[in-house]
Amino acid sequence: MTTNAQGSGKRAVKAVIPAAGLATRFLPATKAVPKELLPVVDRPVLQYIVEEAASAGITDVLLVTGRGKTSMVDHFDRRPDVEQRLEEKGDTERLAAVRRTSELADIYTCRQGEPLGLGHAVGTAASHVGDNPFAVLLGDEFVDEGSPLLPDMLDLQARTGGIVLAFIEVKPEETSRYGIASVRESDLGEGVVEVTGLVEKPAPSEAPSNLAVVGRYVLPGKIFDAIADTKPGSGGEIQLTDAMAALLEAGTPVHGIVYRGIRYDTGQPLGYLQTVVQLAAQRPDLGEEFRAWLTDFVGGQKG
Ligand code: UTP
After folding, report:
1. From ligand 1's centre to the CA of 38, what distance in Å?
2. What's the pLDDT tens digit per position in 137-149?
3. By the number of CB atoms within 10 A of the CB, which of 16, 56, 66, 274 ranks highest?
């Protein structure tokens, strides 16, 4: 055993989605529209994320919003006027799609008055979450629904009681864009590693591995005390990585699951475009026509 199993055996049922950032990489689109509401085909990014949480058994989702971003919460409300119109038209498919958004999970919201960093945003969830373990899903990325990641993370956290991270393997030249972990083997399951350290955005020559932290975490309730004790770090922001590093230092088990499925990163224009194209191409209703058009377009036959 590489660590003592000290978990409660119970899976976390609450999730926090920090979505109060300024989204500077997507300006000017995000001056008035939150990047979390940008559509991927016909659903906003945020809906994919709440769906990912709900299908992992999360029943309670807290959206951390900020200035100009309240509209995100409206997306999960009922719309009786729209539903009535669809009912009158007999459009049962769209009616079900509209209703579904308000049935995915119990949605709560809290405010981050100023975007002081991801750690600070997670810290605003303290009173809602209390002393329980919880998941954090960043508001601008999600994974392929056919190869989910969160259920394994929740199971692992229930066993260890510690922190569970998710990693992707990146190319050496990409390490400076991510938090990179130093790890050792673990016998807690296929694809599971024990984390011994975290380095923020290292140069390739300094990177301890090619395992990059992505935007899914399962955290114990004691992270809130660690966040409260965390001073502003890189970029003057209160970093979640610093709070997690303090818990690691104090002996909290930290594990990571290496994810090998498709991850969609919609936080910047190129990743967003790739996401839209991939998901549009897979859609049963319009995928065939879209793929045919795309093939012609790429072949230079369509303008
Ligand atoms: P990002 O690092 O993507 O920051 O945050 P950002 O502000 O959204 O975008 P850029 O880098 O300026 O383009 C990751 C997640 O954490 C949230 C963001 O909304 C995003 O979902 N976040 C970040 C907060 O909620 N509050 C913060 O203070 C910082």
Report:
1. 15
2. 999 999 999 999 9
3. 16
